[in-house]
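Please check this record.
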Amino acid sequence: MRILHDVEEIDAAKRRVHVRDLKSGKSRWESYGQLLIATGAAPICPDLPGADAVDICGVNTLASGMEIRSRLDKGNIKRAVVVGGGYIGLEMAEALVMNGLEVSLISRPPQVMGTLDEDMGALVSQALRDVGVTLYLDEELTEFETKAGKVTGIVTDKRNLPADIVILGLGVRPNTALAAAAGIPLGEKGSIRVNERMETGTPGIWAAGDCAESFHLISRRPFYVALGTVANRQGRVAGINLGGGYATFPGVTGTAVTKICHVEVARTGLQEQEIAALGLEHVSAVIKSRTRAGYYPGSGDITVKLLAERGSGRLLGGQIVGMEGSAKRIDTVATALQAGFTVEEMINLDLGYAPPFSPVWDPVVTAARAVAKKL
């Protein structure tokens, strides 16, 4: 393990990497038998005036989160603007509100959480408003306002907003410049193309994690997603193969969960725009239910949306927004997706029931029944 060393170049033909020791400044070539690239992803920073100002912060590492917390602890930051309505943006907005800041969030789409359909995203938008976040939807960031090298506000195509700190939640892009320079083939969204064993198109070189491509089990197409669950599974497969074993990574369904204060959010599979892009016809249903038996203490609202292919009834995706006990129900949907279930088969799932955990008809099964009726 050599920390504080920067790999500057990969020479695939001679199976070696050029490494610089950041302490001494000395560089050297180091040979390899097998090479794993696990360079992760980098936060997207817009190429706009003022983007290099102090207190404009990306969040993708523990260190970056600690740096933001340190700035907040000084007590001179009162107004925060979050740019982007994805997972990081929403979770940062929640954290900032809980720290007593005045928080605004800018989102270019008309709803936050672009991995949900608009009707489900609207529920998340309302949850943010309920906890005190001011939303500016369908607006595009155009400029950062600065003074003496420090951010003082942001400019959108519709307004100016003052800010003591700006959090960038615009997503990430695979960190693959090193691989590209070495001639390693890239795939979806610039990620490193790999096969099921996590091998790249260059002999002796493997890739895993947020820099590597995945395969979507429902669309049956290459897919890129930067999630810790996927990175860990890919890393396990790559490690087994590098160690002389044999393992494969079949793909993903895009399952993800998050929480905004008291509201849980989950999704898996395809959303409506992705289904349309594949040329498939689908039906969907949205149901409202309770997380526990209605008469049981602590029962909360839950909204479930399921999407299925017209004709075959094949399950294509699911989304859930609700109170405590909602999000992990997406695992049932993800399992059904990976097994290739139809919604009719989902109706007959033998799920557990007791009043502290669920109504007699679990909300996921209720949604499956609603879709089946439309089919």
